[in-house]
Design goal:
heterodimer; A: alpha/beta; Rossmann fold; 8-stranded mixed sheet; globular; B: 2 domains; about 0% strand; binds iron/sulfur cluster; MetI-like_sf (chain B); transmembrane helix (chain B); membrane (chain B); ABC transporter permease (chain B); BPD_transp_1_N (chain B)
Chain lengths: ~700, ~325
């Protein structure tokens, strides 16, 4: 190879597994050329792990696809080099590329639900490329396939091998995808958001597998994710991307502790962390990433950068070495200085005293079963046991978080409490009045005081109405304004309240970004001066920085308007940052409930222990929970968590009641606190912080 | 799987019974009197003749009684006597159906053999010359009037070039192949009549192309659209990442998924080919059901019309059943 002549003698003889130099990928669109990846360089050696992190549109997924040349037609790699063990990937002819892909370099994609072919048996999909690359004859490959499934933790691998994808859960499918990826022992595995579609305990299982591959087989891994926590739990090094560029590259721990690029700084501080003081404001930066068709001529982060200097607007910073082994693309940190920590968050106002006052919104032994349509005339009717006896109370001025994995019934609970669904049994009380079976007409006067915000703001806003019309409608319908003119003024105020310009009233929902749309739906909820807002995953579709903006906004509004929130989420760190009290749900029941700070510091129910420890965060001891939640069609007898509980005993055949186990704390477990591999090493400084208050 | 098939069969049987009832009612309730068509003006003006005639054919009985007779006959495999031909309707159908089945089946196979590969090629080489050619061909096939196409084909390939034989199922001076099915291709093989086979096949070429023209177009377009959709799925990208050969991706991964809508259309198309060959059969002097239907309808021959309709609807049901079963073969999610 001619490359060896120019290689400096200091490098080792073995070239790195992957070496990317100044990669440039563009999209050819009708509006012009979009520079999706614009000068990204990194290298990954054998046995190394590299993360690529950035928000949606930063070019991280396009980078991943470029590495294996799997781009769609309208995307082109227009510059740079990609070398795999010294071989020029961009120069490979189609046949060479085919022989290389799936054999030495493999990829795992984000969505396991669509990545498997629905009409082919699992085993076939796991083994076809073992055979096609000539690694093994079919019979041997089948044996290896079953072995791979077993290695990836697929339950009953022989039976699974003969099944079809639709018979599996998302977590199981992602295991199959991993088995496909590593079938030929590739030297390089690229994983693009491999756990984004999965629940947190399942995510922990998959990340564990990835780490295991790297440790056992020395597979070099490139992990692409929007979640710094995910990356930190697998990757030693990380590349932070912004607007198509790499802006920082360093050891993950260093970036987390001391980010040297302001965007990385914003990213690190926007993520709610389990070891941050309770009630601390998240750091968010305003604005949005630049339009990829009209990139700023200077630093691409300049319009949003809190640290910018005069030079930033005109000169584009290069990637510079800012410390040994660290590179960043910023004029301010170019001389090796660190960025200051975010301003000490203002201590949140003391939560209002709420012991004596009756609760605002209350559920008593709430049950909701959905009857499924019969599969045939003679089949027995099946029921989804969504919510199975929930007692919960939301006090005035309080924010109560409800967490759990998908299918645990938390969204159904939200819809029961706002009476979008009618309960099967039990009762719902709002402001002391029983609204369990209230008719729509009876609910109407109450509706303004009890509002709901949904996960997907786009789906809940009528696309054919302007934001102004959307907001005016409820105001007029409930007679909250004397005239149309007065209503319009109120809309202006509302938009200002949620941090939008009053002039935005004439725009349509599609003209807004995801975060702005969520602000609009919050404005709609606020239009009628509600007392309680039930928010169902309001930030889970948003990038971390936008998520921080929306959470901060909701917190401000609570203090200014005295709102109460019932906050449904799957992200525990978000709940911890936002809520005073937390209820953990499993299989339609509350298994633990209490003050957020205490629950996260010392969880009592084994499920809460596993849940909190599964959150990917650097430097945490983790409990990886086996198995998946049981079906909601037939509830297990005894403790619902029994099949997965590490400390289950004979007594657990009796269903445990939800009872007070410590002052202010309730848990549904016969042996609360027994399962305690204390997983959350709280940083001493922040703990002290917290206790001082 | 067995349960699935059983369920479908039961459903099909139920539908057939329902269909027979509806067909009988419609045929007997529509205005129009076979008397005029059968007896002629002079005889039809004599009430005595008309009454005798009606009594003979049972047309004087009340509707429910006629339906009873019809049903009893049906249970014994008897569709009644044709008013026009004075032969059992079932015999008539038995005589004409094979010609139509043979023609429609060949036309159907032709549409699949041409339409599916062409659709795949058009999707894989999207916006290439194959795609454009396929689009032009489909447009022509779908929009060209059948009778025009039939005459053009006959004029060019029979009259002009002499490449193809003329109308009819077989050379007029030859004997039709002997055999149990009435399908000349199969009968000729059965009786070892090689010349008969060649002759029948040659006679099938032009009419089946004419009959298939529109279906080829539809199948090509549907296959193309379904393939384009299927090629964009994530599992195709996963297959590329596996380093599979492009043809393996297209045929093994994309095609089985794309075939589901094609099968739906194919079933419909086959049933339509069977029922809708009137024009083609007329131009090509094809002694099939289409022509029989046409004459029976013109004569207001109720027993014949009911019989034909029943046969056609049972065919539809059978084709539907075949479609459902192919779904189950293609897509494991359907098998329950
Ligand atoms: S170069 Fe300037 S604008 Fe860009 S990130 Fe650094 S400080 Fe901010
Ligand atoms: S009751 Fe038993 S099985 Fe259930 S969580 Fe507690 S220890 Fe585990």
């Amino acid at each position: 190879m001619d490359g060896s002549l120019t290689t400096p003698p200091t490098t080792t003889l073995d070239p790195p597994v992957l070496e990317v130099e100044d990669l440039r990928t563009v999209f050819l669109t009708d509006a012009g050329v979009v520079r999706a990846v614009d000068g990204v360089s990194f290298r990954v050696g054998a046995g190394e792990t590299l993360g690529i992190v950035g928000e949606s549109g930063s070019g991280k997924s396009v980078t991943a696809l470029s590495l294996l040349r799997l781009l769609d037609e309208q995307a082109r790699i227009v510059g740079g080099t990609i070398r795999f063990k010294g071989q020029d990937v961009l120069a490979m002819r189609p046949a060479e590329l085919r022989a290389w892909r799936g054999d030495q370099a493999a990829m795992v994609f984000q969505d396991p639900m669509t990545g498997l072919n629905p009409v082919l048996r699992i085993l076939r999909q796991v083994t076809e490329h073992i055979v096609s690359h000539g690694r093994m004859p079919p019979a041997e490959a089948r044996q290896r396939g079953v072995g791979l499934l077993r290695r990836m933790g697929v339950a009953a691998p022989e039976r699974a091998a003969a099944s079809y994808p639709h018979q599996f859960s998302g977590g199981m499918r992602q295991r199959v995808m991993l088995a496909i990826g590593v079938a030929n022992d590739p030297a390089l595995l690229i994983a693009d958001e491999p756990t984004t579609a999965l629940d947190v305990t399942i995510q922990a299982q998959i990340l564990d597998l990835l780490r295991g591959l790297n440790e056992e087989f020395g597979t070099a891994i490139v992990l692409v994710s929007h979640d710094l926590g995910v990356i930190a739990s697998v990757c030693r090094r990380v590349v932070v991307m912004y607007a198509g560029e790499a802006v920082e590259e360093a050891a993950t721990a260093e970036v987390l502790a001391d980010p040297r690029h302001p965007y990385a700084w914003a990213l690190v501080n926007a993520v709610p962390r389990l070891d941050a003081p309770i009630g601390a404001r998240l750091t968010s930066i305003e604005g949005m990433p630049p339009d990829p068709l009209h990139l700023p001529q200077g630093c691409r982060f300049e319009p949003r950068c809190p640290f910018k200097i005069a030079r930033c607007a005109t000169e584009h910073p290069p990637m510079l070495e800012v410390a040994p082994g660290r590179r960043a693309r910023c004029w301010v940190t170019a001389d090796g200085r660190s960025l200051p920590r975010p301003a000490v968050p203002a201590t949140p106002a003391a939560p209002a005293a709420r012991d004596a006052a009756p609760p605002l919104l209350e559920a008593r032994d709430l049950v909701k079963h959905f009857v499924l349509p019969r599969r045939s005339l003679f089949a027995p009717a099946e029921k989804v046991h969504a919510v199975n006896g929930v007692d919960i109370a939301l006090g005035r001025g309080e924010s109560l978080g409800v967490v759990g994995e998908s299918g645990c019934g938390k969204s159904t609970l939200a819809r029961l409490l706002t009476r979008l669904h009618e309960p099967t049994a039990g009762s719902v009380l709002f402001e002391g009045r029983d609204i369990t079976h209230a008719s729509p007409a009876a609910l109407r006067p109450l509706r303004p005081r009890l509002q709901m915000v949904f996960q997907d703001p786009y789906a809940s806003l009528n696309p054919r109405m302007t934001v102004g019309e959307i907001l005016v409608e409820p105001i007029l319908a409930h007679g909250r304004a004397a005239s149309r003119q007065a209503a319009r003024e109120r809309v202006g105020e509302l938009l200002t309240t949620v941090g939008l310009k009053p002039g935005f009233a004439s725009r349509y929902p599609h003209e807004f970004s995801g975060g702005q749309r969520q602000r609009v739906s919050i404005a709609r909820a606020l239009a009628l001066d509600p007392a309680a807002v039930v928010a169902d995953e309001p930030v889970s579709a948003l990038d971390v920085n936008v998520q921080a903006q929306v959470l901060n906004l909701m917190q401000d509004l609570q203090q200014r308007l005295g709102l109460s929130y019932l906050f449904i989420a799957h992200d525990l760190a978000v709940v911890r940052a936002f809520c005073d009290r937390v209820a953990v749900m499993y299989l339609g029941r509350i298994v633990e409930e209490g003050p957020a700070a205490e629950i996260f510091a010392a969880p009592l129910h084994p499920y809460t222990v596993a849940l909190t420890s599964a959150i990917p965060e650097p430097g945490r001891q983790r409990v990886v929970l086996g198995g998946e939640p049981p079906s909601t069609l037939r509830l297990p007898e005894g403790c619902a968590f029994r099949a997965r509980c590490p400390v289950a005993r004979a007594a657990c055949a009796e269903p445990p009641p939800l009872r007070e186990v410590a002052p202010g704390r309730r848990a549904a477990c016969h042996f609360p606190g027994d399962f305690a591999p204390h997983p959350t090493p709280v940083r001493s400084a922040s703990l002290a912080d917290h206790q001082r208050r | 799987m067995a349960r699935y098939i059983g369920k479908r069969l039961l459903l099909a049987a139920l539908m057939a019974v329902l269909a027979s009832c509806v067909i009988f009612l419609i045929a007997n309730l529509v205005p129009g009197d076979p008397v005029l068509a059968q007896l002629g003006d002079v005889a039809a003006s004599d009430p005595a003749i008309v009454a005798r005639w009606r009594a003979k054919w049972g047309l004087d009985l009340p509707l429910w009684e006629r339906y009873g007779i019809f049903l009893t006959g049906l249970l014994h495999g008897d569709l009644g006597i044709s008013i026009a031909t004075h032969r059992p309707v079932l015999d008539d159908i038995r005589q004409y159906a094979p010609a139509t089945i043979e023609l429609a089946t060949i036309a159907f196979l032709l549409s699949l053999v041409i339409g599916i590969p062409l659709g795949i090629a058009a999707a894989v080489r999207r916006d290439g010359w194959i795609d454009s050619a396929a689009r032009a061909l489909s447009l022509l096939g779908v929009s060209a009037p059948t009778f025009w196409l039939a005459f053009m084909m006959l004029a060019i390939f029979y009259g002009g070039l002499g490449w193809a034989p003329g109308p009819g199922r077989i050379d007029p001076i030859a004997f039709p192949p002997e055999g149990p099915t009435g399908l000349f291709l199969i009968d000729s093989i059965w009786s070892g009549d090689w010349e008969g086979f060649q002759d029948s096949l040659a006679h099938l070429v032009l009419p089946s192309i004419v009959l298939a023209a529109a279906t080829i177009g539809l199948i090509t377009r549907t296959t193309r659209a379904a393939m384009l959709d299927s090629l964009q799925q994530d599992y195709v990208r996963v297959s590329r990442a596996k380093g599979l050969h492009e043809w393996a991706i297209i045929l093994r991964h994309a095609l089985p998924n794309a075939l589901v809508p094609v099968v739906t259309l194919g079933g419909l198309a086959y049933a339509n080919l069977l029922a809708g060959a009137v024009m083609t059969e007329t131009v090509f002097a094809w002694p099939g059901l289409g022509r029989y239907t046409f004459t029976s309808a013109a004569a207001l021959d109720f027993p014949a019309i009911v019989g034909i309709t029943l046969v056609v609807s049972i065919t539809f049901l059978l084709v539907n059943l075949a479609v459902d079963l192919s779904y189950a073969l293609l897509d494991p999610r359907v098998r329950r």
